[in-house]
Each structure stands twice: as C-alpha cells, then as structure tokens.
Amino acid sequence: MGLFSTNVQANMPVAAPRSVADITVKGRVTDADTKEPLVGCSVVVKGTQKGTNTDANGNFSIVVSDEKAVLVIGFIGYEKQEIAVGSRTNVEVALKSSASELSQVVVIGYGTTTKKDATGALKTLKSTDFNRGIVNSPEQLLQGRVAGVNVTSASGEPGGRQSITIRGPGGVRTGSTPLFVLDGIPLDNSSTGGSTNPMNFLNPQDIEAIDVLKDASATAIYGARGANGVVLITTKKGKAGTANISVSSNIGVSNVARALPLFTADEFRKQVVAVGGALEDLKADTDWQKEITRQAITQDHNLSFGGGTDKLTYYGSVGAQNQEGIIKNSSLKRYTGRFNASQKMMDGRLVVDMNLTATQTITNRPPVESILGSALSANPTFPARDANGLPARYQAFTNPLLALDLNKDLTTINRIVGSVSPSFKILKNLTYKLNLGVDNSSSTRDVQVFPSTVPQQDGRLDATYLDNRNVLVENYFTFNETFGDHSINALAGHSYQKFTLAGRNWSINKFAVSPIEPANNPGLGQELTLATNRPGGFAVINELQSFFSRLNYTFKDRYLFTATVRADGSSKFGANNKYGVFPSFSAGWRLSEESFMQSGPFTDLKLRAGWGQTGNQEIPSKITQALFTSSTAANTSYPLDASTSYPAGTTFVRLANPDIQWEVSSQMDLGLDFGLFKGALTGSVDYFRKVSSKILLEVIPADPIQPASTYWTNVPDMTITNQGVELDVNYRHIAQSGLRFDIGGNITFIKNVVNNSPYTVITSGSATGPGLTSATVNGYVNGQPIGTFYLRQYIGIDDKGVSKYADIDGDGTGGTDKDRIAAGSALPTRQFNLNASIAYKGFDLGANFNGVSGNKIYDNTANAYFYKARLVKNLNGIAESAGEPNESINNAAPVSTRFLKDGAFFRLNNLTLGYNLDTKKIGINNWISAARFSITGQNLWLITKYNGYDPEVNTDRTVNGISSFGIDYLSYPKARSFIFSLNLTF
C-alpha cells in the first residue's frame, strides 16, 4: 500500500515554473510630496529592454518572468526607484523629486552620454517640451526653446522655408542651416522641389527628442558639415511590454494675423484728391486683402502603435495632414508612414535596428508675390466681381482674383528614408556597428499659366523633375571600460556618403482657351521651339569620405575630458587639399561632487571648457577642375583673318584650381551648469567665440588674361566672427496641494563681425519691384555684421519736394553709391524666449514667448508700393504712401534708409490649455488608458514697431548664391490659428 501510494505521488503532475505570462504586475506612480499621479514615467524590468510608461492617471501594467524580477521606475526630475516584485501583483510607487536631471540621456553623435557627463554645449528637448500648434517641420518645434538658436519663418505659407541659425551665420555661401541628423543619417539640405522646406517630410508627431549641438567640441564629430551646428533628431521607438495604440486628431482654424492698414474706399477717395491726383471712382468699397484671403482649415490626423518583447520591439505610425493657406488656392497636403523595429539575437550580442519613413507632400502655390502686389495696390473703389459674381475683368490692371484662377504651381514630392543598423558585441566592452542608410526623394513641379482673353495671355506649362539621393555607409567600433575611479569610452570609425542630384525641365507655350489644364495634355500647346522652349537638365555627384574618433575619459565621476578628431575628404576640392582634419578638445569639472562643496547651496555645479574646429565645403561642385566649351560666339572665338566669321573651337571657360581648401570654423566655449534648491532652479551660462577663416569666395582675377571673369579661392585674411553669451534658466515648483508650475527662459547676446574682406561690400541681397530692379540692399561690409544694410542715408525732402541724402564723401553731391553707409544689420544682437506652464488636477496650461532685438528690416514692399508717386496714379497704399506734406508727386523712391525699419518684436508664439481625463474614474480604462483634450492658440499677439505683415521675415533675395537677410518683399502673411486636439491611447 505504501509502495502504491509512493508511486501515485511520483506520477502526479508537478507545478511547472511560471512562464513569461504568469505574472502581470500593475501599479500606480505618484509624486511623493503632492500625491499627484506622474504621467509618462518609464517602468522597465531591470536587465532587460522590457518596459512601459504610466498613463494619464499614473497607472501601468507590465508582465514579468518570475518573482525575482526588479522594476526600475524613473521620471525626469525624480529619483529612480527599484522595486522587487516578489509575490506582489500590485504596487504603489511614490517618487521623490531629484536634486537635478543629471541622469538624462543626451545624444551626442555616434553615441549617447548623460547630462552630467557632457562637456560640450548642447541642449536636449523631449517631445513634452515641443511647441504646439500647426507645425510642419522640426525647426518649428524648438523655436524659442534653445539659447543661441534663432528660428525665423521666412513666410506664413504652408510648408514655407524656415531659417535657423545656431550661434549666428559664419560663412558667405553656407547660409545658416545646421546639419540635420535623423536617427544616425546625416541629411542633405538640398531642395527637394518647389519652394518648400526640405524638412517638411518628417512628421513632428513621430519625433521623440531633438538634441542641439552648439559648440565645436560637440559638433566636431561631424567635421566638415558641423560648422553651423548639428541638430540630432531621434524618432519614437517601440518598448517591450504591453502594446498600445495612440490616435490623435487636430482641427485648426486660421485667419490673417495682421492685415496691412490699406486705405478704405472712402479714405482712398480723400487721399488721391489730397495729393493732387485725378480720382478714378467706380463707387465700390472693396477690401482687396480680404478678397484674396480666407479662413483656412487644417486637419492633422495620426495613428501610432508600438510594443514588443524582450527580443523584438516595434513602432509604426501613419499620418495625414491637410493645411489650407490663408491666401486662397494655397495648401499643403502631407501623407506619412513610418515603421521601425529592433531585433535581438545571439543572447543579445547581436542587435539589428531598422527604420523606414515614407512621405508624400503635395504643395499648391499661387503666384503669391504678384497676387499680393495687385491686392495692395488695387483701387478699392473698383468692384472685385461682376454682376454674375465672377471676378471682374479690367484692361488697366489684373484683378488678383483672376490671377488666382489663371495660375497654378503644383509640386509633388515623394521621399523615402531608410536605414539598417546591426551592432555586434565582440567583447564585453567592445561593440561594432554598421550603419547603412538611404535618403531618396523625387519631385515633379508643374507651373501652369492658363490661357485667357481678358486679360490677354497665352497658356504655358513649365515642368521640372528632380531626383535627390543620399547614400550612407558607416562602420565604427565603441569601447567602454570602467576600472576603479576611471571610466573610458572610445569610438573609432569610417564614413562614406554619396550625394546625387539630377534634374530635367521643359516647357511649351500657346495653349488655347480650354477646360483642359495644360499639365493634363501638354500636346495642346502650339509653340515648342528650341529658341523659346529649349529643354534643360543637370546632374551632380558629390562624395564625402571620413575617418573619425572620440575619447571620453572620466575620473572619480567629477573630472571629465573629451577629445575628438575627424578627417573629411570631399570630391568638391582639388587634389592638393582633398582632405581636412578637424579636432576638438573639451573638459568638465563637477565641483558639486567635491567635498568642499557638499555643504553649499548647489546641488549641481559644473564648469565646462572646449575648443574645436569644423569645416565647410559648400561651394559649387567641380569648380576646382578645368572647364572647356566649344562655341563660335564672339566672346569665345576670334577671326583668323580680317573677316567677321568666327571659326568653331574649344576654349577654356575656367582654369583648374587644385589648391582650394576647406573653409574652417574655430570655436571656443566656456560654460557653467548649475542647480540650486534641491534641483528646483537649474540653468547654464555660456560664453562662445566662433571665428570662420579661409573663407571660400568667388572673386575677380587680378590677371586680365584669365579666361573667366571670376574664379573661386580661399581669401587668406578674411574672417567672420560670432561671439556672445547665453543664459538659460528654469525653475520648477510642486506645492503640497498638487499644483505644479514651471517657468524658464533663455537670452542670447550675440555680436557678428566681418573683417579683412577684399571688397567694400559683398552684395548679398537685392531689392525688387517697379523701378528697383538690381538695386542692392545689404551684404558683407568690413567691420560690420553679416547682413549689414549698405544704403544711402535719407535725410528728408528738399525745397523742390525731392528726397535728400547725406553727402558722406564730401563731394557736394549726396546720394551716390560712394555715399552709402552701414545702416544696421538684419542679424539680431539679442534673442530672448520665455516658457511657462502650470498644472493642477488634470488641467494644464502652457505658454511660449519669443522675440529678438537689435536688428533691422528692409521694407522692400513699402519701397516698391507705398509712396506718393503711386498714390497719385490711383494705386492704393497705407498712411506712409501720402509721404511728407511738401513732397513732390514726381519724387522717386530709390533704395535708401527711408525704408529701413526696426525689426524687434516680442510674440506669444503659442498658448495651450489641456485636460487629461481620468479614464479610471469613469470606468473606461480597460478600453482607453489615456485621453487628453486641448486647445492651442498660435501667434496670438505681437508687440513690434514694424508695420509690415510680420517682422519675422526673410524673403530670399540672394545675389550670386550669397544668402540675403532681413528683406521683406510681398511676404506671405502670417496666420493666427486655433487648434482643437484629441489624443487617445488604447
């Protein structure tokens, strides 16, 4: 019996070890002081990549493998906690506010570090810090958020270009655009078609964080492309643990923020007569600005999903945005899809990361300048529409409503960015990584002029096709080792990048009036000749090969040292200077870790110092090589006898110049990071000085025998210097009642100067409009900042009613080119930004202000349209069109300081009121884990003396490829918008 009993027990089922699905741990994370739930806390199983985030109520749910599992709970600004699971399936966690955010991870290029160990000047923005509203590109997300970074919207057009500078522009042809790096792929900033921003392809909803590298010690790892700073964009990734789906829907309503104060019909009747004009009055009362604008609707809808296991995580998203412009017929449509995955193999030694982004943007753009020009000058007594409600037709001028109907500029861009990045842990402390990336875009642009009888115009079609490909191959090794008080992180690698840009264009004229658009049937065009419609094309290939290395050394967690060197070779340069070497060095001292600082008020105090060099290669391709041409034209050939016949032949157009070398930017930075009151008050102060030398410039040859009128060279003594001070401060307070608020801001004082230029002025901006063709406005002047306005000084009206100008050279004649003066710069000398937020019991309110001062704007619009000689001809204007009382109606309006205005402003950029619904209280948390409602106001108010549409403007008036600054000419007006948003997480 006993034997039988024993056998039965031996064969009874034995409880198997718990599997991965056996233990589900749920919990809630709160603030230890206020007891308020903490939203977005990370909950990770220690030693794995399995993790999740808390929802709007601070709740989380995660699966662990056994009772030995340990949960690591962390949140920015709070001390991490480790919770042993044991037999518990429900935990309550109260996090204490940390002394600082020193453990925050920052991306530094080819790797990461923590905020406490960083020795360079950099700033990290998480998605919770981004600007809200109608956002098309990453630059808008960080406007006003980072000291030393100035973001200017060139216009209010949907998808319009953004001008961004980091610590000021430093070259003649480089512009100011920093290098953008998307998940490890350095992007090409070349235009991908039309007049839109190349960065519009990226859906802001997919971005997890943006790291801005400002000084050379941080950017030198990118060598030749880091002279203007580096912006590292990290997209959202999947996390192991519970899968989730998020949906966001945004509806925006936009109107013109500031219409120009044009004369009304009644005012116009009085003003024309007052200045001595013969009034043309058709008895109407038309607001032409109102006629061409509208209340615009924007829709932006996104869906994302993510999750995974210990070995495989994934994230995907789709998005659709349809933004109407406030000028009729202008719009931007964007469709995005993104997917990434990370697979672990070989017990975690091999990790393969994959990223894929696909985007289509469709931009519809009317001829903005001509439509605005017509609307601003059109007689307001003329009716906009005829008796049938159709746009009225006039012989004397083109109704801007007709211009909207008779022109169409449609650009479609398809862009795919993908990468595969396997990494293999060779040894415990040695990892190899391969990074393969492709960025491919193609665009089609159809510019159509529809045929018309009144006004008479022939139909025309201009078609352009562009292809832009960027291929990247990188291999690098990373070594990490800690022994005693010493810690070393070393990096060494190789990079190869190939850029291919090609385009084709053709046109056809004389389409008959027809309901068929020219683009839909080009064969209806009647004129196609090589004389007027010669097709064109181009192809450019550039290659960049680089070798790079970096060493980070830490002693006792308080003495920090970083050394970086990168050698770049570019196909743009000649054989004698193909490669450039760009080193950097930086050091940090964490004084707060010293024993003599333990009783002081500082919870964090770190000194930083760095020096480094970066380069610039932004010159035309192949200009170091000789160029030949075959022609019979008089300027390239000559007769061999006394006749006038020019024989065919091959001649030099450009001589080879193998000695051109890299433009170099040397920068030093001294910084102080601090934290007080247990980390409630944090900030940093930086002094920087950046000097660009060996300036690449197109100059006139001293030898008159040269075959070309200009050639490229490095100007040996010319320098461009940016220096200044940045202050960034943030204060956060959490009250016992649960009320929390943050207030912070930054201010930058910056001075730019050009020295030892070989020219009196290198023209960088020209005016345009009636009577102003080819008139220059600003440029590079010795002893002055970039973008200096070099103009005649307007001093009033003489007794003949004609403009007077200061006689600077003393020759008795004022107003010649020799009397031009440096009248101020388009670059601001001060940039200031303020951010504030407050939250209580599910409600939150956040605001962002930004502004600049010390800069000028040239009002090219007023110069071309708003002066007395036009008003007397029945062309509308604003108050300044009436001019001075004794001004002649025949007084011209040439370029001068008369139209130079103060560009300072202070703006409430956005204001957001939100509410996080407690889904648990209303019993829907099993289906919806988080729900948020919000309303955002964008561009709500503006303080400025400038009387144009908006002081934040930069019309592209480039001269010979040299970027212009601070010119306003018929710029697309900015909108004031209200956006209603709903975010759900399932």
Write structural notes for this entry.
- By secondary structure, the protein is mostly beta strands.
- Helices cover 6% and strands 49% of the residues.
- It has ten helices and 51 strands.
- Helix 6 packs antiparallel against helix 7 (400-406).
- The radius of gyration is 32 Å and the shape is globular.
Q: What keywords describe this structure?
A:
mainly beta; 10 helices; globular; five-stranded mixed sheet; 22-stranded antiparallel β-barrel; 6% helix; 986 residues
Estimate the helix proportion, in percent.
Answer: under 10%
Cα shape: globular
The tally of strands reads 51
Unreliable stretches (pLDDT < 50, length at least 5) are: 1-20
Give the biggest beta sheet.
Answer: 22 strands, antiparallel, barrel
Q: Strand share of the residues?
A: over 45%
What is the CA-CA span between the terminal residues? Answer: 59 Å
What is the overall pLDDT average? 87
Number of helices: 10
In oligomeric terms, what are we looking at?
single chain
Work out the radius of gyration: 32 Å
- Overall SS class: mainly beta
